[in-house]
Amino acid sequence: QVQLQESGPGLVKLSQTLSLTCTVSGGSITTRYYYWSWIRQPPGKGLEWMGAIGYDGSTYYSPSLKSHTSISRDTSKNQFSLQLRSVTPEDNAVYYCAKDRIGSIRGQGTQVTVSS
Q1: How far, in Å, CA of 26 to CA of 62, rounded?
Q2: Which of 33, 20, 1, 27 minimizes the C-alpha distance to 96?
Q3: What does the DSSP assignment read for 23-92?
């Protein structure tokens, strides 16, 4: 069974870049036709899909975040990563990596706080 685990700093300074990594076990990120996503949940709000990277390395982004988001992968480590540039207080959220777009199978999540 696939398991996902997020890692990265929980505190990021205003206007800096947030970097998170997801380590996948129990399955390969190159398995057809999976698309591995980053999803976040701000306080008091619902889940927001941020973007995904496909089994073939293709990337997809939410239009509202596309300009300052990048998703990449390291197939040798079976990991995929998120970079969110120029963070603001609106980026405070619990960040999840997931096996699909809706987060039906996802990691436990990691809290990210933007500090001034």
Answers
A1: 27
A2: 20
A3: EEESS-TTSTT-EEEEEEE-TTS--EEEEEEETTS-EEE-TTTGGGEEEEEETTTTEEEEEE-S--GGG-
Question: What is the predicted pLDDT for the residue at 71?
Answer: 98
Neighbouring C-alpha atoms within 13 Å toward the C-beta of 104: 4
Place of tokens 């008091």: 44
pLDDT tens-place string over residues 18-40 = 999 999 999 999 999 999 999 99
Peptide bond before 96: cis, by omega within 30 degrees of 0? no
Instruction: Return phi, psi of residue 67, to 5°.
Output: -70, -20
